[in-house]
């Protein structure tokens, strides 16, 4: 990096520190409480226009199937670790629905039906979800609701939604090539999928308008407890902690993250302005609050909680994931809050970031300081107006009324949902 670039970087840091100091970041403080009272009319100024936060209450009714505990709560009791991993949204969406004003106990008046199946709660000893049983588990749950209620059979699931938060959603495999080979579970192809996996034109992603993309789970209370004072100087230019190589699954070293993380390491491991390491320290949350830019490169899938953490901690996300589909565009003006870098441009990352005008850095920081923007990415318990659960409900409400052809004529069958690979037909 040349002298001019270094001087410009220092200018960015100086102004960024000022911007952080003047835009107080309150996670759940007095400003957040004020927003909560006025959520019906709160507006967020952004590239998408002057966006009105919607209230889904009164615009949709959701019936929650009462499944045997083996499909959900029994799994949590067996291994509570699944409450804290990045796929835990399936648990918290279920819990929030049970107490939500949109829930109806009368299925005949429901707009949507929810089948609470915790497909990522079967963890290995190291804590990684392995969705090998997920297809059988999901198929068995659908057989259960189809046998006891008439609603699945009348639409083949077209007015049902499912939370499928694993890396490749309802393809139910942790390796992309095998997930693509399997495809979205046949029985779910008429349903709406709420999934963290967001990548355009991918076999594991429903076509635009079908699925709802949500953020991965990041624990709000844990982050709240680690907040630093708003005026804390941002003395680190670019920060990243995470794997650069996945030797276990990618021994050659360049399939993981399509080589983007390896490029970050090879190009900037010795850079004086990049603070990057594979080691995650105990001060990880605090370190993000001392950084101007937080790198958010793809891994095996485009998503990780890192993007959520960066937004919550006011660190400008640098998204490196070609074709990523981000959640809740009507609530979060992503183009104004984050920086997007093409995977092929990673070797130029230092030049790209130091070329951003200081006033642009400050503007992004002030956008990230909005409590409404932060809240839209978090699954609070209990749910709060405008949070991630609220945004999912808005997405469901906007898909109403159901499109023509959702409800089947008597005797008409669009899918034979009992078909599938023999291993998927075994009892679960």
TrEMBL record:
Membrane topology: Single-pass type II membrane protein
Pfam families: Exostosin_GT47 (PF03016)
Keywords carried by this UniProt record: Glycosyltransferase, Golgi apparatus, Signal-anchor, Transferase, Transmembrane
Subcellular location: Golgi apparatus membrane
Domain Exostosin GT47: 59-356
Tree of life domain: Eukaryota
Gene Ontology cellular component terms for the protein in this record: Golgi membrane
Coiled-coil features, chain-numbered ranges: none
GO molecular function list: glycosyltransferase activity
PANTHER family: EXOSTOSIN GT47 DOMAIN-CONTAINING PROTEIN, EXOSTOSIN HEPARAN SULFATE GLYCOSYLTRANSFERASE -RELATED
Name of protein: Exostosin GT47 domain-containing protein
């Amino acid at each position: 990096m040349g002298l001019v670039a270094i001087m410009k970087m220092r200018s960015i840091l100086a102004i960024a520190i000022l911007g952080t100091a003047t835009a107080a970041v309150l996670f759940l403080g007095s400003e957040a409480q004020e927003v909560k009272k006025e959520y019906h009319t709160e507006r967020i100024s952004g590239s998408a226009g002057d966006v009105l936060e919607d209230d889904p209450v009164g615009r949709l009714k959701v019936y929650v199937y009462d499944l045997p505990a083996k499909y959900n709560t029994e799994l949590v009791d067996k291994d509570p670790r699944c409450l804290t991993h990045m796929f835990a949204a399936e648990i918290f969406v279920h819990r929030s629905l049970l107490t939500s004003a949109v829930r109806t106990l009368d299925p005949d008046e429901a707009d949507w039906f929810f089948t609470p199946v915790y497909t990522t709660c079967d963890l290995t000893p190291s804590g990684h979800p392995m969705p090998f049983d997920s297809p059988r588990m999901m198929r068995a749950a659908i057989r259960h609701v189809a046998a006891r209620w008439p609603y699945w059979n009348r639409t083949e699931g077209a007015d049902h939604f499912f939370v499928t938060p694993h890396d490749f959603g309802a393809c139910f495999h942790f390796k992309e090539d095998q997930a693509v080979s399997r495809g979205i579970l046949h029985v779910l192809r008429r349903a709406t999928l709420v999934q963290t996996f967001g990548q355009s034109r991918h076999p594991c992603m429903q076509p635009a308008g079908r699925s709802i993309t949500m953020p991965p789970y990041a624990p709000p209370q844990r982050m709240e407890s680690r907040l630093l004072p708003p005026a804390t100087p941002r003395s680190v230019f670019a920060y990243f902690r995470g794997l650069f190589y996945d030797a276990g699954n990618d021994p050659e070293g360049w399939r993981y993250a399509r080589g983007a993380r390896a490029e970050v390491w090879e190009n900037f491991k010795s850079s004086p302005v990049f603070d990057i390491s594979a080691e995650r320290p105990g001060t990880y949350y605090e370190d993000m609050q001392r950084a101007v830019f937080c790198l958010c490169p793809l891994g095996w899938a485009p998503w990780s909680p890192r993007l959520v953490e960066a937004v919550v901690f006011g660190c400008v996300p640098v998204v490196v994931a070609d074709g990523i589909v981000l959640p809740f565009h009507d609530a979060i003006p992503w183009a104004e809050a984050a920086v997007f870098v093409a995977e092929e441009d990673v070797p130029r990352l230092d030049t790209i970031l130091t070329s951003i005008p200081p006033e642009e850095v400050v503007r992004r920081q002030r956008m990230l300081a909005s409590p409404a923007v932060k809240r839209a990415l978090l699954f609070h318990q209990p749910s709060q107006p405008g949070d991630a659960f609220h945004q999912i409900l808005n997405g469901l409400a906007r898909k109403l009324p159901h499109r023509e052809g959702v409800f089947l004529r008597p005797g008409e069958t669009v899918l034979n949902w009992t078909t599938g690979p023999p291993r998927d037909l075994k009892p679960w």
